[in-house]
Write a structure and sequence with these properties.
The protein is α/β, with parallel strands linked by helices. It has two domains: about 170 residues, 3-Layer(aba) Sandwich (Rossmann fold); about 100 residues, Rossmann fold, CATH 3.40.50. It has a four-stranded parallel beta sheet with strand order 2-1-3-4, with helices on one face. A two-stranded parallel ribbon has the order 5-6. The chain has a two-stranded parallel ribbon with strand order 7-8. Helix 1 packs across helix 3 and helix 2 packs across helix 6. The relative contact order is 0.11. The mean pLDDT is about 85.
């Protein structure tokens, strides 16, 4: 919360002077919160439009604070597509004016509850079928906002939707061939992916925290039982893994960025790694 207080202080002091220094006529009129949304919105709307992004791919949403420039530009945009992550919710609670149309792209998705809280797991974009719903939600907004572009937007939507459908179908076929239908993750991120492809996610962290001794022992037993060869980790967090797992179990650390804008690349990378785990 300290970071948010800093944002409020900075934003309040420099808002007016920032507006004067920035050429807002060239700022993005469409904003998104994360990389996966950025790539699809940009593809739908085309290269003649600039799409802004708040959270850089290499930053942690739990600690990142948007810059003053980002907040000024966001508040002069027409629309903000977000996922409903805590990062987004904190922004919506006082940093964005009513003039910005804020769209939660999760509408229509069957959300999964978090194990450690009453809130929903926000990582639904990691399932291609969920991304198809997200894409349709974005499409429905963009063609109304830019009716002169409806023909191009519609064509691109149909092409992207087909690519996502094929990704899902191909992934299901590949995962159905696996004898080990489980994946080991550091943090509970891949629930929707697991649900779509008929897998079980086994999570190292316990209620969002590093595992206690008993939980770690249970994980070690499951590593032996399922013969896991790798653990999925967000880039930059491998140092938080218990050494006993890496040294004694010879687990490969598979770093994959859930916030990457290269959506098809990260989904196919996870599918391939699971196949290699056989």
């Amino acid at each position: 919360m300290k970071l948010l207080k800093n944002i409020i202080l900075i934003f309040g002091i420099f808002f007016l002077t920032s507006c004067e220094r920035l050429d807002l006529s060239k700022s993005p009129k469409i904003f998104v919160s994360i990389g996966p949304l950025h790539s699809f919105v940009q593809e739908l709307i085309g290269t003649n439009f600039l799409v802004g992004i708040l959270l850089p791919e290499n930053m942690d949403p739990h600690t990142y604070s948007p810059t003053v420039k980002q907040m000024v530009e966001l508040n002069h945009s027409k629309i903000f597509f977000h996922t409903g992550m805590l990062f987004d919710k904190l922004l919506l609670e006082g940093f964005i004016t009513n003039d910005v149309n804020c769209i939660d792209v999760s509408t229509g998705i069957e959300l999964i509850s978090n194990d450690e809280s009453e809130e929903h797991d926000p990582h639904y974009w990691l399932a291609p079928q969920c991304m198809r719903i997200i894409l349709k939600n974005i499409y429905d907004v963009l063609w109304k906002l830019y009716p002169s572009e409806i023909e191009n937007i519609n064509k691109r939507w149909l092409e992207l939707d087909k690519k996502l459908a094929n990704l899902s179908e191909n992934g299901i076929m590949r995962m159905n061939k696996l004898s080990n239908k489980s994946l080991l993750t550091h943090y509970s991120t891949w629930k929707y992916f697991a649900r779509e492809f008929g897998l079980q996610e086994i999570v190292l962290q316990e209620n969002g925290k590093e595992p206690c001794e008993q939980h770690l022992e249970n994980i070690i037993d499951q590593i032996d039982s399922y013969n896991f060869k790798f653990i999925t980790v967000q880039p930059g967090l491998s140092s938080k893994l218990p050494k006993v797992l890496i040294e004694n179990k010879e687990l490969k650390i598979f770093e994959i960025n859930k916030l990457s804008s290269n959506y098809f690349e990260i989904i196919n990378a996870m599918l391939s790694e699971l196949e290699n785990n056989e």
